[in-house]
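User: Protein folding is very new to me. Would you mind checking the protein record under this note? It all follows right here:
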Amino acid sequence: MRSKHLSELLPFRVEHAVKDSDLRAAAQARCLAYGKHLPDFGQRLCAPDADDLGKDCAVLIAKSKLDNTCIGTVRVQIANHRRLRLEDSFALPRALATGRVAEISRLAIPARANGIALRLMLIKAAYWYCRSQQVDRCFLCVRHPVDRQYRRFDLDDVLPEEQFIPMQHIGNIPHRILWFDVFGIEARWLLNANPLYANYFELQHPDLLDNIQARTQLMEVEQFVRLQG
């Protein structure tokens, strides 16, 4: 069994895209990635949009350690100043919309060679970012057949029978709306023996957002100690 203190370095870093050059690089990654399967929509993503610059959104960018180029990106919106983008197309049930909610979107990996490992690490970075911000529930909109790739994450559907809803912020393309409890999914994966559990919760990846996992876990321990005191 892996030690909870085991750490693994990656061939890339995931950072916050703050500089204009990083935001443009993230937009180009989206343009290329989405353009392979959705050419018209991909062209609309070739430049940073208003949400990239908004207070609610964090654009995360993966950079190769070899040449510092952008190899992938993902965006997290926390509903502080406006509702989630998905709610422009679908009203979430009140039970799911209460508390602090976030949407993970614009996941883009332009080169197939980077593949599954980078996708898993971008989602892990987005997860720990949400957890560090004390988000209660997180939502993802996924189109067919990409939705099949998310079975491994053991998420719940907002709508029964895997219904698909056209999403305005994703080119009016039909998507499933998936969600998970940010603080509950760790126990869920442990109980279900999810094969991703060790990678996401035991193994540390310091290259993700300046070791956000370790920093968040330390913050949670300190909060618990204060409450007990």
Remarks:
- The mean pLDDT is 94.
- The two ends are 33 Å apart (CA to CA).
- The chain is about 35% helix and 20% strand.
